[in-house]
């Protein structure tokens, strides 16, 4: 789906303004009005396309998603975000502030659009194009509140920033996590009702909403509803697993493929910042840095995730670069580097024996992440890269997740199951990975499958968290979070580390956030 950049959209100034609280987007009292705009489907869809864009999502998907979802879960090693590696995260953490700000900014956009489109309908605007747009906003708002509830637990719920801003009362409390989850679910139900059965590639449909609902139900241990919603997606026949697993994350031609239910939409552009996918340099092996592509390997696979792959699991080479990994199409070259150029002349080889200045790589875990690394640049045989930006979408919900949700929801907290349909769902994922089919499975089997299937996609921390403190503690303390020169095991995991702290700057501005949460629903 081609998305118009934010600056090209004639969106009300409300979407670009903010009040003193970062998590409240304040609508402007001037600018574009419902009377002179949003008079046709193109204008409305141009506005909602902003919600899919990397621009508002940037500060979450660039680094915060990795630090929270994969470093904290034990899937990634890093020398940068060590507080997430060692569970010493403070409320002053840059990643916490970035994710919080991004999430509430997206919610602010959705809030203003919902109100604007409803006003347009009341003034006689066509429901044919306004109702689906309102449903898109509900999906985004519900999904983001789901992320907030999983990340911080109790949190503010803002639905009318204008009323809040005009009232002058910015002392907004945290609401109970169960209420934030309930609000997110209600939003997704509205999206399910209002979204179309199908739409242009990359646009949300009612099956996107059903899929996200199934994930929320699973998180809440509502297995019956999780299974029902996952089954509705499966039975629709609209989705399938793609054969090119690595290509899902590295090829622009595979954006919005048959496996994607919801993706952040990127374009190959470096301006405005966030239009392109910014994961490339943080994951790219240093020996793939070229004049076209930055690569500084801020995040690398942990030793623990490398141990998790079963023998013969194709996802390992699709997700991880290790000694012997090759790509004959990539032929990076550098100025004034004859030994490096000779080593790479016949194709890229990941080599931990070759001196680094001559093309080798010798990092802390002797591996690099292949997911979302598009390559060294078009001139060197890969996808096009513009410095730090690639054109690959970031997938937030895909069909493999729906299949594994269905399998786990069928297990429903039991010891094991050999249910035929649940096995079929699980084994579809395993078969693509080149693994033998299972005849029965346990919860630990599912958690293993989810870990390797979604490695480096920012999700595994939430799989650990939803097991409850006792099991989460056991899982975390078993992990080797160190390097090849020294193991590191967590000994300080306590219950207060199950959720991240509210950003300290937000509490300074709104002291209510530092108090105990209160009910949202009376």
List keywords for this structure.
signal; 21 helices; mainly alpha; membrane; Serine Threonine Protein Phosphatase 5, Tetratricopeptide repeat; RagB/SusD family nutrient uptake outer membrane protein; two-stranded antiparallel sheet; TPR-like_helical_dom_sf; 522 residues; two-stranded antiparallel ribbon; SusD-like_N; single chain
List the helices and strands and how they pair.
Layout (H helix, E strand, L loop, with lengths): L40 H8 L5 H8 L2 H8 L4 E3 L3 H4 L8 H29 L4 H26 L8 H7 L9 H18 L11 H14 L3 H14 L10 H4 L9 E5 L14 H5 L15 E3 L1 H6 L6 H5 E2 L4 E2 L10 H7 L3 E2 L18 E2 L24 E5 H13 L8 H13 L10 H11 L6 H6 L3 H9 L26 H6 L13
Antiparallel strand pairs: 1-3, 2-8, 4-7, 5-6
Helix pairs in contact: 1-6, 2-5, 3-5, 5-6, 6-8, 8-9, 9-10, 9-16, 10-16, 16-17, 16-18
Would you mind describing this structure in some detail?
- The chain is mostly helical.
- Among the domains are: 10-195 and 505-514, Serine Threonine Protein Phosphatase 5, Tetratricopeptide repeat (Alpha Horseshoe); 281-385, no CATH class.
- 42% of the residues lie in helices and 5% in strands.
- It is built from 21 helices and eight strands.
- It has helices at 41-48, 54-61, 64-71, 82-85, 94-122, 127-152, 161-167, 177-194, 206-219, 223-236, 247-250, 279-283, 303-308, 315-319, 338-344, 399-411, 420-432, 443-453, 460-465, 469-477, 504-509; strands spanning 76-78, 260-264, 299-301, 320-321, 326-327, 348-349, 368-369, 394-398.
- A two-stranded antiparallel ribbon has the order 1-3. Strands 2-8 form a two-stranded antiparallel sheet. The protein has a two-stranded antiparallel ribbon with strand order 4-7.
- Helix 9 packs across helix 16 (399-411).
- It is globular, with a radius of gyration of 23 Å.
- Mean pLDDT is 93; it is low at 1-20 and 25-31.
- It is found in: Cell outer membrane.
- It comes from Spirosoma agri.
- InterPro entries: SusD-like_N (IPR033985), SusD_RagB_dom (IPR012944), TPR-like_helical_dom_sf (IPR011990).
């Amino acid at each position: 789906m081609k998305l118009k950049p934010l600056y090209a959209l004639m969106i009300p100034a409300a979407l670009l303004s903010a009040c003193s609280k970062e998590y409240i987007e304040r609508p402007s009292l001037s600018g574009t009005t419902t009377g002179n705009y949003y008079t046709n489907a193109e204008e409305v869809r141009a506005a909602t396309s902003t919600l899919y864009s990397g621009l508002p999502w940037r500060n979450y998907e660039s680094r915060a998603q990795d630090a929270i979802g994969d470093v904290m879960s034990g899937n990634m090693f890093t020398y940068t975000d060590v507080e997430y590696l060692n569970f010493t995260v403070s409320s002053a953490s840059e990643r916490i502030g970035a994710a919080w700000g991004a999430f509430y900014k997206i919610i602010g956009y959705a809030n203003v659009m919902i109100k604007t489109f409803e006003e347009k309908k009341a003034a006689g605007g066509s429901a044919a194009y306004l109702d689906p747009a309102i449903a898109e906003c509900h999906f985004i708002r519900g999904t983001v509140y789901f992320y907030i509830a999983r990340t911080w637990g109790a949190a503010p719920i803002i639905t009318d920033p204008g009323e809040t801003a005009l009232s002058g009362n910015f002392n907004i409390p945290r609401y109970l996590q169960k209420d934030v989850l309930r609000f997110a679910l209600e939003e997704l139900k509205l999206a399910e009702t209002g979204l179309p059965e199908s739409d242009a590639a990359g646009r949300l449909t009612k099956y996107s909403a059903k899929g996200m609902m199934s994930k929320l139900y699973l998180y809440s241990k509502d297995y019956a509803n999780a299974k029902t919603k996952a089954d509705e997606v499966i039975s629709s026949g609209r989705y399938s697993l793609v054969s090119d697993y690595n290509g899902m994350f590295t090829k622009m031609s595979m954006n919005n493929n048959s496996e994607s239910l919801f993706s952040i939409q990127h374009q190959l552009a470096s301006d405005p910042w966030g239009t392109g996918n910014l994961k490339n340099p943080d994951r790219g092996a240093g020996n793939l840095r070229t004049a076209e592509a930055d690569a500084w390997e801020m995040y690398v696979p942990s030793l623990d995730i490398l141990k998790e792959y079963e023998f013969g699991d194709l996802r390992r080479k699709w997700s991880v670069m290790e000694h012997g990994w090759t790509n004959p199409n990539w032929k990076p070259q550098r100025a004034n580097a004859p030994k490096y150029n000779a080593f790479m002349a016949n194709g890229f080889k990941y080599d931990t024996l070759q001196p680094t200045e001559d093309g080798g790589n010798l990092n802390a875990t002797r591996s690099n992440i292949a997911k979302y690394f598009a390559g060294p640049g078009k001139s060197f045989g890969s996808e096009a890269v513009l410095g730090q930006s690639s054109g690959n979408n970031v997938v937030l919900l895909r069909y493999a997740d729906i299949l594994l949700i269905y399998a786990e929801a069928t297990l429903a907290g039991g010891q094991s199951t050999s249910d035929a349909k649940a096995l079929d769902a699980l084994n579809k994922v395993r078969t693509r990975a080149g693994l033998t089919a299972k005849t029965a499975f346990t919860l630990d089997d599912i958690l293993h499958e989810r870990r390797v299937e979604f490695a480096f996609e920012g999700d595994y921390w939430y799989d650990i968290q939803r097991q409850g403190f006792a099991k989460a503690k056991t899982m975390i303390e078993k992990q080797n979070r160190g390097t090849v020169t020294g193991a590191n095991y967590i000994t300080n995991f306590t219950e207060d580390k199950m959720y991240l702290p509210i950003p300290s700057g937000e509490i300074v501005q709104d002291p209510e956030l530092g108090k105990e949460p209160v009910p949202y629903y009376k």
